[in-house]
Design a protein that fits this description.
15% of the residues lie in helices and 27% in strands. The strands form two sheets. Strands 1, 4, 5, 6 and 7 form a five-stranded mixed β-sheet that branches. Strands 3-2-8 form a three-stranded antiparallel β-sheet, with no helix packed on it. The longest helix has 13 residues. The chain starts with 6 loop residues before the first strand and ends in a 5-residue tail after the last helix. GO terms for molecular function: pyrophosphatase activity.
Length: 182
C-alpha cells in the first residue's frame, strides 16, 4: 500500500528501559542495527500496527510496554533505487513513518525475538539514547535522528546536553553485551 507520492505507511518503535536506554535489534545475518519498524496494513491504525510489529519483531505484548509519546506527523526517508525491488521501481520512493516512544514495563526476559516464524532480528541490546547512528543503514539515519530528537521531550534528560554524542564508539562492546535468543 503506497500513498500518492510513493511512500509506504509505516511505524517505527523506540523502546526504552528504565534507564532511558534504547532497544536496538541486529538484522538477521547482517551487521546492521535498527529500531523495530514495519508497515501499516490496510484498515490498521498506526497504534494497532505498532503493537503488531512490537510483537512480531520483539515478542512484546501491550502489557509489557507503556506508550510515552509519538511523533506529531509522518517522518519520511527515500530508499536508494538499488534497494528497491525491480517491480516497484518508478512507483515506490520510500517509507513514511509515525514513530512511537515506549517504556518497557515488563522485564528484559519478556523480549522474544522468535515470537513468530519470521524473525527480523537475531540479537538485541540496550544502548545509550544518543548513541551515534553509524551502525544504522545510511538512508535511515536522518529519520532516526528526527524521531529521537522529537521524542526525547517525553523522557527525563538534561536538555542542555548534546543531541548526538560523536565521541562514543557505536556498538563497540556488542560482542560482550549482545543478548541473543538461544
Amino acid at each position: 500500500m503506497l500513498d500518492r507520492e510513493g511512500y509506504r505507511p509505516n511505524v517505527g518503535i523506540i523502546l526504552c528501559n528504565g534507564r532511558n536506554e534504547v532497544f536496538w535489534g541486529k538484522r538477521i545475518r547482517e551487521h546492521s542495527w535498527q529500531f523495530p519498524q514495519g508497515g501499516i496494513k490496510r484498515g490498521e491504525t498506526p497504534e494497532e500496527a505498532m503493537f503488531r510489529e512490537l510483537y512480531e519483531e520483539v515478542g512484546l505484548l501491550p502489557e509489557h510496554v507503556r506508550i510515552l509519546g509519538r511523533t506529531k506527523g509522518w517522518l519520511r526517508y527515500e530508499v536508494p533505487t538499488h534497494w528497491i525491488k525491480r517491480e516497484w521501481r518508478g512507483s515506490y520512493k520510500g517509507q513514511k513513518q509515525i514513530w512511537f516512544l515506549l517504556r518497557l514495563v515488563g522485564r528484559d526476559s519478556d523480549v522474544n525475538l522468535r515470537a513468530t516464524n519470521k524473525p527480523e532480528f537475531d540479537a538485541w541490546r540496550w544502548n545509550d539514547y544518543w548513541v551515534p547512528l553509524d551502525a544504522v543503514i545510511e538512508f535511515k539515519r536522518l529519520v532516526y535522528e528526527q524521531a529521537l530528537n522529537e521524542l526525547v521531550r517525553f523522557l527525563d534528560f538534561d536538555r542542555k546536553g548534546p543531541r548526538h554524542k560523536k565521541e562514543q564508539e557505536p556498538f563497540s562492546d556488542v560482542v560482550d553485551s549482545v543478548r541473543s535468543e538461544e
